[in-house]
Amino acid sequence: MTILPMVVSLAAQILITIAVMVVIAVTASFRWMKMGTLDQGLLMQEVSEITMNSLPVILLLYHVLATIGFGIWYYFGCGRPKPKSPRRVFAGRALPMTLLIGILMCVSATAYLSAAQYVMPEMIEQYEEMMEMAGLGTDPLTIFVSVIIAPVGEELLCRGLTFHYAKKVVQGMRNRRAAFWIANALQALMFGVMHGNLVQGSYAFALGLGLGWLRFRYDSLYPSMLAHLVVNLSSTVFMGYLFSVIPESLLGYVLLMAAGLAAILLLMRWDRGTVEWREIGGNRGQ
To answer: How far apart are CA 37 and CA 243, in angstroms?
Structure first.
């Protein structure tokens, strides 16, 4: 069950893409037949080109349907949890902690990608081409989906459903701190795998650990959703400007990544006095 939400997510992406391609192919076929000709080679080329241009729409369809579907699954599959008041969740230090950790996670992830260009340039080049084809960072619709809709759906999927089932794997462990980190690593692993490539999956795993900690620390999905939004917004809007003024250097990027991760760990350590290493196998407030 810990793996199932990720499998459903990947299957949904494939099925939605196929459905869009079928609609495009049927529409194009009718148009070609009206012109009195039907060249299958040119038809397939046209379908491929239109599909690539439709990736932002496909992303929108997937994330909207995923948010609704996983939201329903989360509600009925996790004991119909009653959401806490956002004002209560973000009282005190919760809001600044969430925002700061989100920014630091984005800085660390961007520094990792920048450093990876020196270590695995071909893989990074393929990753950047894939991001460019999807319109990430350039297409307004894709930016809207990645910043506003995706954090909600992906948090329901990973820090909601997947974490809920992962907690059952470690239910009953006496060492509650270890139980949390095992369950947290499981959901973060699923978060990384669902991104479908090694580059994105590796830093998504690290981000998933931090988002899982926020979800557990404040006993709510709201902080992980907000931090996820901050990461996506910062990477889309702000990080390009920040890294344009930083001298290009492998050592510099590695040091920046290490500094960001160290700052996150220090914040978590500073806040650990208020963390209750409770039994995580139950289903408390969400």
So the answer is: 52
232 C-beta neighbours (distance < 10 Å), count: 21
Query: How far is 126 from 134, CA to CA, in rounded Å?
Result: 12
Averaged pLDDT, 46-72: 91
- Report pLDDT digits (tens) over 26-38: 888 887 777 777 6
- Rounded to whole angstroms, the Cα distance separating 97 from 228 reads 13
Distance CA 250, CA 173 (A): 42
Tokens 């329901």 belong to residue: 156
Contact between 214 and 223 under an 8 Å Cβ cutoff? The reply is yes
Phi (first) and psi of residue 90, to 5 degrees: -95, 20
Instruction: Output the CA–CA distances (angstroms, integers) from residue 210 to 41, 138, 139, 172, 284, in the order listed.
Output: 48, 27, 28, 24, 20
Q: What is the tens place of the pLDDT at every residue in 228-242?
A: 999 999 988 888 778
Residue with tokens 């806040």: 271
Element (H, E) at 209: helix 198-217
Tell me if 52 sits within 8 A of 59, measured CB to CB: no
Distance of CA 266 to the CA centre of its chain: 24
pLDDT in tens, 253-270: 999 999 999 999 999 888
